[in-house]
Design a protein that fits this description.
The strands form 5 sheets. A 5-stranded mixed sheet has the order 2-8-7-4-5. It has a 5-stranded mixed sheet with strand order 10-16-15-12-13. It is mainly β and about 270 residues long. The chain has 3 helices and 18 strands. It folds into 2 domains: about 120 residues, Immunoglobulins (Immunoglobulin-like), CATH 2.60.40; about 130 residues, Immunoglobulin-like. About 5% of the residues lie in helices and about 50% in strands. A hairpin with a 7-residue loop joins β7 and β8. The protein is globular and about 55 Å long.
């Protein structure tokens, strides 16, 4: 890292015009191009934070080249009294990344302005894709029994989590995708917890699993809480189970394994009293 920084001209970080309008400053990083060993801290404050249309800072990270954990990742740092601090790790290990920091508009909802951007050379080869919660996931107080957003599995992925700000009357949705294939599943919440053995239906390769929570403002609508990349090492493919929309209302849930073999069914049922 030190050798790489010696090769670079460490020029001061540049701020966009919107950053000046709302009094945004950064204490970290200090330069617009530099090298790191595995992580960098983005830290700053905003003087006029009370006028912003959101309490979250959006940080986008893009790799120069696509790797096992994709090419892009995003972080959502919550503002607390106008201050925020977020550790960024690099999801494809060694290489060059572009990081941009976006601040919410003070006039329009769901609109962000770029406050600053910088390039990072990561010299650490370790793949570190953080498990990141969106604003919806943070407001629902989602907590998963895992730290990394990129995992390697074989045929199945065990998902376990808690939701501190939802009730047992709510449900959590899963959406699994790979290439052009997609599967959705609704999970019940019991005592603030949920769990499911997710079949990796589509064979070898990376499956993208979205965990979604109910939208408080729209009935029967869900918003992404977090996204997990699951690298399936098995060549086996499976067929998703087809079920009635009313099965949860009648107290019927599916136990492990929850998948259908191509030569028949392999399903167990239980009924909640």
């Amino acid at each position: 890292m030190k050798e790489k920084n010696k090769e670079l001209e460490l020029q001061p970080l540049e701020l966009g015009s919107y950053a000046g309008e709302i009094g945004s400053t950064f204490s970290s990083p200090e330069h617009k191009e530099f090298a790191v060993n595995g992580k960098v801290v983005v830290e700053g404050k905003i003087d006029k934070f009370s006028s912003l249309m959101s309490d979250y800072i959006l940080i986008k990270v893009s790799a120069d080249e696509e790797g096992p954990a994709g090419q892009q990742h995003e972080y959502y740092a919550k503002l607390k009294d106008g201050k925020y601090k977020q550790t960024i790790r690099f999801f494809n290990g060694e290489g060059k990344y572009h990081v941009s920091v976006h601040i919410p508009s003070d006039e329009t909802e769901n609109y962000y302005f770029e406050a600053t951007a910088f390039d990072v050379y990561n010299v650490n080869p370790e793949i570190q894709r953080d498990l990141v919660l969106t604003p919806f996931g943070q407001e629902a107080e989602v907590a998963l029994d895992m730290e990394s957003g990129y995992v390697k599995e074989n045929e199945f992925f065990r998902l376990e989590g808690e939701v501190g700000n939802l009730t047992d009357e709510d449900t959590v949705m899963l959406q699994l995708t790979k290439d052009m294939e997609s599967w959705k599943h609704i999970m019940p919440i019991k005592d603030g917890k949920f769990s499911y053995d997710v079949p990796l239906f589509y064979g070898k390769g990376v499956h993208e699993l979205e965990v979604l929570v109910p939208d408080e403002e729209r009935e029967n609508y869900y918003q992404t809480a977090t996204t997990i990349l699951i690298d399936n090492e098995s060549d086996k493919t499976m067929l998703p189970i087809e079920y009635m929309d009313q099965y949860l209302e009648r107290g019927v849930t599916l136990e492990s394994p929850g998948w259908r073999r191509r030569d028949g069914w392999n399903v167990q049922y239980k009924r909640e009293n």
